[in-house]
Amino acid sequence: MLVSVPSETGQHHPITFSPAFIRAHSPILGAVQEGWSGRLDPDNTGFIGVETFASLVHSHELPLDPAKLEMLVALAQSNDEGQICYQELVDLISSKRSSSFKRAIANGQRALPRDVLLDETGLGFYKRFVRYVAYEILPCEMDRRWYFYQHRTCPPPIFMAAVTLTQIIVFLCYGARLNRWVLQTYHPEYMKSPLVYHPGHRARAWRFFTYMFMHVGLEQLGFNALLQLMIGVPLEMVHGILRISFLYLAGVLAGSLTVSITDMRAPLVGGSGGVYALCSAHLANVVMNWAGMRCPYKLLRMVLALVCMSSEVGRAVWLRFSPPLAASGPQPSFMAHLAGAIVGISMGLTILRSYEEKLQDQCVWWVVLLSYATFLVFAVFWNIFAYDLLGTQIPPPP
Hints:
One of its GO terms (biological process) is proteolysis. Its EC number is 3.4.21.105. The active site is at residues 272, 337. This is Rhomboid-related protein 1. The chain is mainly α. It folds into three domains: 2-112, Recoverin, domain 1 (Orthogonal Bundle), CATH 1.10.238; 120-153; 158-384, Rhomboid-like fold (Up-down Bundle). It has 16 helices and four strands. The strands form two sheets. Strands 1-2 form a two-stranded antiparallel ribbon. Strands 3-4 form a two-stranded antiparallel ribbon. The longest helix has 28 residues, at 363-390. The chain is elongated, with a radius of gyration of 26 Å.
C-alpha cells in the first residue's frame, strides 16, 4: 500500500508498507491506511486530528493500549494545531520510538496525569512486579507506562539467571572438590582450573571470559550473585537480553584485558567486571535522572550501594597485596572492578538512556563503541608483544 507523506520541504513522498507489516499491526494500521486519503486526510496534508482518529477507533471498535492513547494525546499537544503526522501515528501503532518521537512526546506530556500506574488496583503478583521494575529502572513516567503496557513475559530475563546459576554450580563443584568454601584461590589445585584467567595461559582466549564463573570464595560469589539478581534481572527485563548481555560481557572482557595490561603478573577470577558494568551504569543513570526516578529511599540505597561496592574493591585490594595466608603465587587482581565501572559509566549509560531507541542511530553510541574497539585492539597487541618486550616475569602456569 502507498501513502503520500509530506517531507520537510513540503513535497509529498510515497511510503510503501508490505501486507505482512499491515497484518502484523492490524486492524488499527489497516483501518488508518484505508481511510487516510479519504475522510482522515482529505486535503492530503500528511496530518490527522486526534478527534478524527478517535472517531475512527470508536467506529471500528479497534483495540489500543492505554499507554498509546496517552502518547497520542501527548503527540497532539506537541503540535500547535492539535494534530499528529502520519509517520508518528504509524510509529505509535507499531511501537517504534525514535529520538524525535520521544522529544515530541516530552513536549506534549506536561498535561498528562501523573503516577497513573501507582493508582492501578486489582493487579496480580507479576504485574505488580512489572510495575515495581518500571519505577526502579525508568526515569520518565511516560516510559514507565509504556513499559508496563507493552511488557511481555516472553522472552524471560534468562541471561542473568543463567549466568548466576552457572556461577553457583561451578562454585559448589570446586568447593566440594577442594573442601574449601572461603579463599579458594589459596588451594594449590584451584589455579589449575581451565576457567581461571592466568597470565601464563593468555593464548587460551576463552579464559578472558570464563574467569567470570570462578570466585575467590562464598563472600565474593554472594555479593556478585545478589547484585546480578537485584539489578541485572530488572535491567534485562526493561532493556532486553541483547543489550544487557552485551554490556555484561563487555565489562567481563574489559576486566581481564585491563588486568593483563596494568597487573601483568596477577591471575583473575570472579564476575565483578560484568557486575560493576551493570551497577555503575544503573547508578549513573539514577544520578543523571535524579528528579525523575521514583524508586523509594533512593538516596539511602545509593549510599549503601556505593559503600558495598567500595568495600568489595577494598577487600580485593587487600587480598591482592596483603594475603592473609601463604600462597604459591600472586593473588587475583582487583583491576577488573575498575574496568567494569568505566565500561558501565560510558557504554552502559548510553544503553540505559536509549530505552526503546535504536543505538545505531545515535552518534554517541558509535563514539563509545569505537573507543572500546580501540582499547580491544591495543590490549590484543599488548598481550602479544609487551610481555616479552618488557621482560615481565610472570608466575609459571599451573
